[in-house]
Design goal:
Elements: H1 2-36, H2 46-54, H3 60-67, H4 83-98, H5 100-106, H6 109-141, H7 151-178, H8 183-209, H9 214-236, E1 238-244, E2 247-250, E3 253-256, E4 259-265, H10 272-281, H11 283-288, H12 297-304, H13 310-331, H14 334-343, H15 355-387, H16 398-434
Helix pairs in contact: 1-7, 1-8, 1-16, 4-5, 4-6, 4-10, 5-6, 6-7, 7-8, 8-16, 9-15, 9-16, 10-13, 13-15, 14-15, 15-16
Length: 435
């Protein structure tokens, strides 16, 4: 009996210890990331920077600051944040859907995945170089912001921002490989969560000074709480398709005849459409960094894409709907699902196996994606209509709420899965020992 208890305890204990190490490692990486968001770029005047950020918090610069975890307002080495990586991912995902080369890579298993990751990294470096140089030019065009303007400042700033982006990409990959959850999503999550207390404090300060009425603040907080509840409800919602397996007789025994379910999430794409749409909206900011003319049409477009502006709402909603359908089509293939069911003898009652089954699944998936994309647009834009009337930070908007809640749910699910696998592992060892 003593040997039995030693085996079961050591099995579950090692699994639990591994989970603890992964959680601690994830927190350690996130602390490093947060520390780097406070390391400033060299050659920047802090007083001029504060005045510049204060006057542009309501523009797309505020959204850039959201995804950079507050690094933009401090003009830190991580000012570009994870956006070059996200932009590169968008380009690769689009190429995967339209080019044969990337389609074949996707179907080549682990080798194809490594190649796609490699191309994504190359794209990240290229975009970070372009955006980093654009930021350096933009900083020089701001009066009094740069202490010593010139090519040396541009070179140092570009290389520093590129290094910061590569560092974030590496940190995210380390979390995914050795920690818990998706590294890139957790980095965005940690940046938003770290800035939310300051956003709430500034909002309450506006109420104390009379800039916003108490009723308005309470209405905003109630709306945010309702949005959180709605996000949790929809993210857990599923449409389950009944799958039946026929009975088979082998010798004197009858096998099969059981049924299972194919779950289809209402929001299959998750938080990706909101992040990708935000990344596209930040493109005018990147282009405006290269503009030296105050009357440039790019600057005019950027000003029209401020928070709460009609053009911002239209482009954001359109981007969310497009990426909801596009990303769903990439991660879920009804034809492959139908073929797998057919190989294992499964079928949907009342639907012929093969092409009819794939058409049935595709029809349901399309309807669910319509509902899911409408939900994403509602969550991301409804708070914006109210917040656009008041000087509320981006961190209390619908996009930040969606990212925080969805990433938190996914991470908790992964932790629970690892805990359950640890319990099953100890149970299997216990069963083997008893035999």
């Amino acid at each position: 009996m003593s040997n039995f208890s030693d085996i079961s305890t050591s099995g579950s204990g090692s699994q639990s210890s591994d989970l603890t190490k992964r959680i601690v490692y994830t927190l350690f990486i996130l602390i490093i990331y947060r520390f780097c968001t406070y390391v400033p770029l060299p050659g920047i005047d802090p007083d001029s920077l504060k005045n510049l950020i204060t006057g542009n918090e309501r523009s797309l610069l505020g959204m850039f600051n959201l995804f950079a975890g507050g690094a933009v307002q401090r003009m830190a080495i991580l000012t570009l944040g994870i956006m070059p990586y996200i932009s590169s991912s968008i380009i690769i995902q689009l190429l995967t859907g339209v080019t044969e080369y990337f389609k074949n890579l996707k179907n080549q298993g682990e080798y194809g995945r490594r190649k796609i990751t490699q191309y994504t990294r190359y794209g990240t470096v290229l975009l970070a170089l372009i955006q980093g140089y654009g930021v350096s030019v933009s900083l020089e065009n701001s009066p009094g912001l740069v202490l010593e303007a010139g090519w040396y400042f541009r070179f140092v700033t570009t290389i520093t921002l590129l290094t910061g982006t590569i560092l974030i990409m590496w940190l995210g990959e380390q979390i995914t490989a050795r920690g818990v959850g998706n590294g890139i999503s957790l980095i965005i999550f940690s940046g938003i969560v770290a800035e939310i207390p300051g956003a709430l404090a500034s909002t309450f300060e506006l109420g104390r000074t009379g800039a916003i009425s108490t009723i308005a603040i309470l209405s905003i907080l109630l709306l945010l709480l309702g949005a959180i509840y709605f996000i949790v409800f929809v993210e857990r919602a599923q449409r389950r398709i009944l799958i039946q397996y026929p009975k088979r007789q082998m010798g004197n025994k009858m096998y099969g005849g059981e049924s299972s379910y194919l779950p289809l999430k209402v929001n299959t794409a998750g938080v990706i459409p909101a992040i990708f749409a935000s990344a596209l909206l930040l493109l005018p900011v990147t282009l405006s960094n290269f503009s030296t003319s105050a009357n440039s049409w790019i600057l005019s477009v950027t000003s029209m894409l401020g928070q709460g502006k009609p053009l911002y709402m239209l482009f954001y909603a359109s981007g969310i709907v497009f990426f909801a359908f596009f990303y769903t089509s990439i991660i879920f293939n009804p034809v492959e699902t139908s073929d797998n069911l057919k190989k294992h003898g499964g079928f949907v009652p009342g639907i012929r196996p093969g092409e009819k089954t794939s058409e049935f699944i595709q029809g349901l998936l399309t309807k669910l994606t319509v509902i899911g994309s409408a939900y994403l647009v509602l969550i991301c834009l409804l708070p914006e209509f109210l917040i656009s009337k008041y000087p509320i930070p981006f961190y209390l908007g619908g996009t930040s709420l969606l990212i925080v809640v969805v990433v938190a749910m996914d991470t908790i699910t992964q932790v629970q899965t690892r805990m359950m696998s640890a319990q099953y592992a100890s149970l299997i060892k216990k069963t083997k020992f008893s035999k």
